[in-house]
């Protein structure tokens, strides 16, 4: 096996699915050559632009035809990923398909069938590591999506680096070295940040415990607040805005609704299409752009729903609880619409410059108060770039007003250039993202798309969590290594809170050396019968029907053979079982897996692992939560060292195994893998 490891994550969104391929050095190899600062960081993860690919439409469109999702949707994505991963590394490459907003709207029974078919197709057509469908192929809630985004942003910005290794890092001087994260799509918006110490203690029950691991094997714990606002994405906000315009102008015969959020003179239907012929506009209710941006801001402000009752103060938007934000230490990055709306048109030639409220508002106002005919000519002349079409130009005024309201009146981010921002020395658009690498940016808010040519995507956050879980923990005698992942911020005896999502594919396999007799409990690996009935694969769903069919067929056969034959068959079965029991009990070479402890009771139990054609039998499992399968490194084979042996192993110390027994073993078929 090589030193490079790979991972594949598919972002199954509402409009399409994008595949990302990531690569990192094997942690056991990387730590041998790492510098002191690299050891105190999460392993470096690499990706390239050509390693991504997107197909449309979204996977949710296959909710009523799951059998087609493989060939019609997944095939080109899997083929693209396979092209960039060496063949020998594919069996150890984890595959994740994580669906978001679109799949959350699909009916539960249809969602289960579709996810099951996705997992089954992936197992049939790729060699990727996919041990558990429920973990690797799933629909994630908005809060999880926000947390993954927070991980990705802080990983790229150096928020997880050891602050002691960066004494010049201005952002970390107050003991708070992580960044806040804001994301906005079409349907929802998310916020994620680590509150200051005071707020963390006050709102501990509202936080998520996130545990990562550095290359040196030391764990890092963070308490993060994450929430999502459904209906607060730009498209849903626009829909609610149009509904309110209709309600405000409800009167018989009124067909034209003035819209200050559209450029002056633009005629548009209620569903967002431009009306080019004024005569057509007179036939139905439509919108007429007035190009008054200040009025647009005032009209969109009520959409924040800040007047809703707040049952758990403090609240920001829609009556939803959010701990108080200390903007002196919490500096936010914004992705998706926060980036596109602030840079797509208004910062086309200044993509690396910081968000400046005063400058941004001025540019938006100048643009939106133009006549639509002038804007249309500039768009066709590609004045704003090739990616800006007429639809984008029609939408940007509403989006800009919504972004401004959410940021400053909703979340409370100070208006740079107008409101005081503490001790920040930010001077407008002259500060660039390059400052992040030098000292950490000190702006309260900065829109970003890429950092050092890497897209700030929540999929990267999921892979950071996985890679951190693959780092062997630092060896601490007598102390159980806590697993990488996230869950409720609740203290537990084993360090695994309820609902804990493991960073890897399940409970960790790497554990430190522990003295015999310690009884640590961690979730055990599922047995074969658990895996048999687990969701996510199509085959298990057929098993109950098959078993029922065999049972019915067997009963029918017994009825047909007659009473006399049934009695004879019963006598044969009974005598056969008794004979086997006598032979087994009388055998001198009996093998049992009862423990024989050399140092007293309390030693963990073992069982033989599965057989591997290349490596032989796996290292025995210890059900005390210590060892599980290959990859244990220095902890493999420690059973006898701690005084636990099987009786047949003890027996072989005083006698040779008989030739007949050896021959029998050689001829017996290998157990299934």
UniProtKB/TrEMBL annotation:
The alphabetical list of record keywords is:
ATP-binding, Hydrolase, Membrane, Nucleotide-binding, Transmembrane, Transmembrane helix
Q: Where is this region: Disordered?
A: 649-673
Q: Biased composition, Basic and acidic residues: where in the chain?
A: 649-658
Query: What CDD domains is this protein classified in?
Result: ASKHA_NBD_YND1-like (cd24039)
Source domain of life? Eukaryota
Q: Where on this chain does ATP bind?
A: 186-190
Against Gene3D superfamilies, the record matches this protein to: 3.30.420.40, Exopolyphosphatase. Domain 2
An example molecular function term from Gene Ontology annotations? ribonucleoside triphosphate phosphatase activity
User: Its GO CC terms?
Assistant: Golgi apparatus; membrane
Compositional bias (Low complexity) spans?
Answer: 659-673
Q: What are the recorded Gene Ontology BP terms? A: CTP metabolic process; UDP catabolic process
Q: Which family does it belong to?
A: Belongs to the GDA1/CD39 NTPase family.
Specify the protein name.
Answer: Nucleoside phosphatase family-domain-containing protein
